[in-house]
Amino acid sequence: MDTQELATRILAGERRALARAITLVESGRDDHRAQSVDLLERLAGSGRQALRIGLSGTPGVGKSTFIESFGMMLTQQGLKVAVLAVDPSSARSGGSILGDKTRMERLSRAPNAFIRPSPSQSALGGVARRTRDAVSLCEAAGFDVILIETVGVGQSETMVADMTDLFILLLAPAGGDELQGVKRGIMEMADIILVNKADGDLKSAAMRTCADYAGALRLLRKRAQDPEGFPKAMTVSAMEEAGLEIAWGEMQALAHWRRENGHFDSRRADQARHWFEEEVRLALLARLERDPEVKAQMGALGQEVAQGGTSVSGAVAQMLAHLRK
Ligand SMILES: Nc1nc2c(ncn2[C@@H]2O[C@H](COP(=O)(O)OP(=O)(O)OP(=O)(O)O)[C@@H](O)[C@H]2O)c(=O)[nH]1
Ligand SMILES: [Mg+2]
C-alpha cells in the first residue's frame, strides 16, 4: 500500500490502516523511515486534535484497570479512545501488553477504542519519537482522547508529560502517613493525582492518602498553566468504576481553562519545538557516530584518556577542534 492510500484510510478512521501505520513508524529500517516521514507529512494538515492525557503510576497501582474502566466510560459517551503505552524496560514490553490486552478485555473489544502496545525499543529517545508519531497518527485517525500510559520510573514520566496536554498520576492508598516516596519532580508534573482503590477496606486509607497529597500539592509552587484549585487530588475506584465521571469532569475543566487562556496551544508549541530540537540533536549524534573518521578519532582520544596521557577536558577540546574542520 502506498502512503497516499494509507493516509486516506487513516483519515477515514480505519483501524487496520492505523495499526499498519504505527508499525511503519516503529520500524528501524531506513526505507520505512522515509515512508513514515512522507505519511506524517501528508497527515500533518488534518487539523484534528485529540486530548492527550499522560497516565503514570508504579506497578500494581491499577493503571490497566483504570484505563479499562475510564476508557469504557469515554467510549460509552461516544468518544473515540486510543491507548498507547510507553514501557522503557524492554524486557517487559510486549509481554506486559499481552497481559494488558486481557486485562483490558472490554476496552480492546470496544469498536471506538484502539489499544497499542509499547514499541519494544530500549532507548528512550527512540521510544519518544515512535510514541509521538503514533500520537500524530491517532489524531489524524480522528480519536478524541489519547491515553499514554507509563510505568513510574522518572525519565519516562518526564517524556510522557512532555508530549501530553494533561498529566495524571495514579497512586495507591498508603498504609501509614508517609507520602509513598513519590519524587517531588513527579508531583510537580501532575495536574491531577488520583488515589485509586478507594473501595472496601481500602477506602478510608485512600481518603487519608488523598488528603495528604492535597496538602502536599498546596505546598508546591504555583504554575501559570493552572486555574484556582489545580493541581488537585481525588479518590477513584477503577475496580468499582467510582469517581471516574468526576475525574473526567475535572480533566475537561482544566483542558478547557487552558484552551481559553492560551496555555493549551503554547504548551503544544513548546513541546513541538522541544521535540524538534531533541530529534535534530539525536540525528546529528547518530550521523557523527556513524562517520568512520569521527569513530577513529574518538577511539584514539579515548585510548589516550584511558592511559592518562590526556585529560578528559583536553581530549574533548581536541575532538571538537577536529569536528570543526
Ligand atoms: N480494590 C481495588 N483493586 C484494584 C483497583 N484497581 C486495580 N486493582 C487491583 O490492583 C492490581 C493491579 O492492577 P493493574 O490494573 O494490573 O495495575 P497496573 O498499574 O496496570 O500494574 P502494572 O501493569 O504491573 O504496572 C490488580 O489485582 C487489580 O485488580 C481498584 O480500584 N480497587
Ligand atoms: Mg498494567
Characterize the structure shown.
It contains 14 helices and seven strands. It is of the alpha/beta class and 325 residues long. Strands 3-2-4-1-5-6-7 form a seven-stranded parallel beta sheet, with helices on both faces. Helix 2 runs antiparallel to helix 7. It is globular, with a radius of gyration of 22 Å. 34% of the residues are buried. Magnesium ion binds next to helix 4.
What is the tally of helical segments?
14
According to DSSP, the number of beta strands is 7
Poorly predicted runs of 5 or more residues: 90-95
Average pLDDT over all residues: 89
* Fraction of helical residues: 55-70%
Q: Strand percentage, roughly?
A: 5-15%
Observed structural traits:
binds magnesium ion, seven-stranded parallel β-sheet, binds guanosine-5'-triphosphate, 325 residues, alpha/beta, 14 helices
What's this model, at a glance?
The protein has 325 residues and is an alpha/beta fold. The protein contains 14 helices and seven strands. Bound molecules: guanosine-5'-triphosphate and magnesium ion (MG).
